Amino acid sequence: MTDIDALVTQLGAGVDYVIVRNPARQPKTRMFDGSALEEDLVRLGAAVLEMPALLAWARNHLSALEAELGRGVSHVEVVANRELPIDGW
């Protein structure tokens, strides 16, 4: 968080910011909610994006893929990497 805060302080309003909320991961990232960093980002015009929850079939496919690969797979990787064997995606 210190690194992110230093970056925001250094770049200020010279760049665009996006606050991404992922309810599925929120227990791990709740520390940012209402923080001084979040307030600075909002003051600088940050957009707020909330990731929608995955449907059960998508969660099941992602879990199966993670088990097959033996590692975690992010939603971004699934969308960006067309070589991943995701049915219907």
Structure description:
The chain is mostly helical. 47% of the residues lie in helices and 9% in strands. It is built from five helices and two strands, in the order H-E-H-H-E-H-H. Strands 1-2 form a two-stranded parallel ribbon. The model has no long low-confidence stretch (mean pLDDT 77).
Overall geometry: elongated
How many helical elements?
5
| Main sheet attributes: strand count, strand direction, barrel closure | 2 strands, parallel
Rg result = 16 Å
Briefly note the structural class of the backbone.
mainly alpha
Order of helices and strands: HEHHEHH
Q: In what order do the strands lie side by side in the largest sheet? A: 1-2
Query: How helical, in percent, are the residues?
Result: 40-55%
- What's the count of strands? 2
User: Termini separation (Å)?
Assistant: 34 Å
Beta percentage is: 5-15%
Mean pLDDT across every amino acid position: 77
- Poorly predicted runs are none
Can you give me a brief rundown of this structure?
47% of the residues lie in helices and 9% in strands. The chain has helices at residues 2-11, 26-29, 36-43, 56-69, 75-80; strands at 18-21, 47-50.
Describe the structure using short key phrases.
two-stranded parallel sheet, 89 residues, single chain, 5 helices, 2 strands, mainly alpha, 47% helix, elongated
Produce the secondary structure layout.
Elements: H1 2-11, E1 18-21, H2 26-29, H3 36-43, E2 47-50, H4 56-69, H5 75-80
Parallel strand pairs: 1-2
